TrEMBL record:
SUPFAM superfamilies, per database record: N-terminal nucleophile aminohydrolases (Ntn hydrolases), SIS domain
InterPro entries noted in UniProt: GATase_2_dom, GFAT, GFAT_N, GlmS/AgaS_SIS, GlmS/FrlB_SIS, Ntn_hydrolases_N, SIS_dom, SIS_dom_sf
Organism name: Candidatus Methanocrinis natronophilus
A Pfam short name: GATase_6
Protein name: glutamine--fructose-6-phosphate transaminase (isomerizing)
Membrane-crossing residue ranges in chain numbering: none
Enzyme Commission no: 2.6.1.16
Catalytic activity: D-fructose 6-phosphate + L-glutamine = D-glucosamine 6-phosphate + L-glutamate
Length: 600
């Protein structure tokens, strides 16, 4: 949700900023901009994507070996060039980029306007540039001619400005004539990459992997001063601190598209491998978590979007396999349950990015009440990975497509592993996942894709698609519906099979497509729900291991018992992809969405 990138070093900044922003585009793509520092600030910004900026604004000509860049997902103010970052002070001497929300921006803006500052955007972020300007003890009247700076140092001015901000923010600031970048992070992600050719800043590590794998994960409230080749870290109290350097284990190739047209297809195809990697866990940690679950007085799974669907699937698995009840709550609704939290409660926070603001807020509420927190995330060094008492990593490698595909199935694997660990059957679950390898491989092979491409052709013009299932197939239907709707923009909704007769049947007309997810253990009941749809003219597409006569179309998947949610989700991911391609949409970057949702 907004991506920020910065570089200071020995090379020309603009080509690096452009590549970094391109790598970061999955965090926001409605507008983009850069600022570099040479004799003057070189600022270019544009509505659209980084490729538009490069082609329309001769961006490669902008000089300077340090610069900052931003790719925006609008929160305050419409998508316009003025609202794009970087934002500057009154005289274009200071430029900032920001990810997060400045909660007190109206109050700050009013004060700054009274002092003569002129604003040129509707954003909350612009106040930061003016605050820095103000703190530089500006002499003379702002509304007059250009100023002369004569006050405190740029670093001091930045720090004083950061202190006035409330909300969440990762900010990079530069100033004309200064060979430095000043950065701060509070409740919004920011990491620092250390390379021979310079220092990198980014919202996460993937964008600078092609230059370095050496990374410093900042603590909350940290301030960073990068000057020339030197980088210094300060804590919130402005004491200089040492921060450990970690080596990222992700491979650079994993963050590239390779021979695939889109990251979405690449990541779907990786699943035969990634579900295996999800099983590579430290048994001691799994045992500790299992015992925390057993002794927890109230266990809450908390997540958003696809991660929430993985948690729902987990709750069915915990009930079925481990005979344990867990509560599953959308992170954005968790405040309604906070009063149940005690020091005996266990919060299970699941988030691919580890930066989803709603999830982090739930985690922080839990910690304030003394509850313990276990997290499942894909991103080492993310806020969630650092705030949890126990951590399990998905090991899926970077997921660049905005849609979760491989990380969803890894989350489901991990839910299954934990349920089995609680039941004393961890190893046999690992073996079952290993046995899925060829099935998953076949589901993503070309022959399957061609069949789903045919189906996509027939569905592409539909206005509505429905999906039904029971138990583990209901949660699979929810996830499948999310995938199809978010990437094809076709209204797609899932229902529990038994709920149809309580309302949704009214939606069925002649030819309405309805997917039916079937498992051997709930076949009779879901097929009778399917009959109810058929009787009203619905067009049934079965997802099952055998072709029931009630189906008009059939997607063949093997029956893998409790692991069916993995096997049945995959063809639906492929179908969603093919629908997007058929409709000439970008599957990697659906409209209005961003990969990492760092605002509440
Ligand atoms: C859907 C999707 C989103 C995310 C959700 C949570 O394809 O990707 O619904 O699942 O935004 O993100 P994380 O898991 O990073 O917390």
């Amino acid at each position: 949700m907004c991506g920020i990138f910065g570089y200071i070093g020995s090379e020309k900044a603009t080509p690096i900023l452009c590549r970094g922003l391109k790598n970061l585009e999955y965090r926001g793509y409605d507008s983009v901009g850069i600022a570099t520092v040479s004799s003057q600030l070189g600022i270019r910004k544009e509505v659209g994507r980084i490729d538009d900026l490069v082609s329309r604004l001769n961006i490669e000509d902008v000089e300077g070996s340090l610069g900052i860049g931003h790719t925006r997902w609008a929160t305050h103010g419409p998508v316009t060039a003025e609202n794009s970052h970087p934002h500057t002070d009154c005289f274009d001497k200071v430029a900032i980029i920001h990810n997060g929300i400045i909660e007190n921006y109206l109050e700050l803006k009013t004060k700054l306007v009274e002092r003569g500052h002129r604003f040129s955007s509707d954003t909350d972020s612009e106040v930061i540039a003016h605050l820095i300007e103000d703190n530089l003890s500006f002499s003379g009247t702002i509304s007059g001619s250009e100023s002369s700076w004569n006050g405190s140092s740029f670093e001091d001015a930045c720090v004083a400005a950061f202190k006035e901000l409330r909300g969440s923010f990762a900010v990079l600031a530069v100033r004309e004539g200064e060979d430095k970048i000043v950065a701060v992070r509070k409740d919004s992600p920011l990491v620092v990459g250390l390379a021979e050719n310079g220092t990198f800043f980014a919202s996460d590590v993937a964008p600078f992997l092609e230059w370095t794998k050496e990374v410093v994960y900042l603590e909350n409230h940290d301030i960073v001063m990068a000057e020339g080749s030197e980088v210094r870290f300060f804590d919130g109290g402005f004491a200089e601190v040492k921060r450990p350097v970690s080596t990222v284990e992700w491979d650079i190739e994993e963050a590239k598209k390779g021979n695939f047209d889109h990251f979405m297809l690449k990541e779907i195809t990786e699943q035969a491998e990634t579900i295996q990697r999800a099983c590579v866990q430290d048994m001691a940690v799994v045992e500790r978590i299992a015992s925390m679950i057993r002794s927890g007085f109230g266990v809450f799974f908390v997540a958003c979007g696809s991660s929430f669907h993985a948690c729902l699937t987990g709750s069915y698995l915990f009930s079925k396999v481990a005979k344990l009840h867990v509560n599953v709550v959308l992170a954005s609704e968790f405040e309604n349950y906070e009063h149940f939290l005690t020091d005996r409660t266990l919060i299970f926070a699941v988030s691919q990015s580890g930066e989803t603001a709603d999830v982090l807020e739930a985690v922080r509420a839990a910690k304030r009440r003394g509850s313990r927190v276990v997290s499942i995330t894909n991103v080492m060094g993310s806020s969630l990975s650092r705030e949890a008492d126990e951590l399990l990593l998905m090991n899926s490698g970077p997921e660049i497509c905005v849609l979760s595909t491989k990380t969803y199935t890894s989350q489901v694997v991990m839910m299954g592993l934990l349920a089995c660990a609680l039941d004393g059957n961890y190893e046999s679950c690992v073996q079952k996942v290993k046995d899925l390898y060829m099935d998953v491989y076949n589901l993503t092979a070309k022959s399957m894709r061609d069949r789903l491409k045919d189906l996509a052709r027939d569905l592409a013009e539909k206005d509505h698609i429905y999906m039904i299932g029971r138990g583990l197939q209901y949660t699979t239907a929810l996830e499948a519906a999310l995938k199809v709707k978010e990437v094809s923009y076709i209204h797609t909704e899932a229902f529990a099979g038994g709920e149809l007769k309580h309302g949704p049947l009214a939606l069925i007309e002649k030819g309405t497509p309805v997917f039916v997810f079937v498992s051997r253990d709930n076949e009779d009941r879901i097929v009778s729900n399917a009959q109810e749809v058929k009787a009203r003219g619905g067009y049934l597409i079965g997802v099952s291991d055998w072709d029931n006569p009630v189906f008009d179309r059939w997607i063949k998947v093997p029956d893998c018992g409790d692991l069916n949610p993995i096997i049945q989700a995959i063809p639906m991911q492929v179908l969603a992809y093919e629908l997007a391609v058929k409709k000439n949409l970008d599957p990697d970057k659906p409209r209005n969405l961003a990969k990492s949702v760092t605002v509440l």
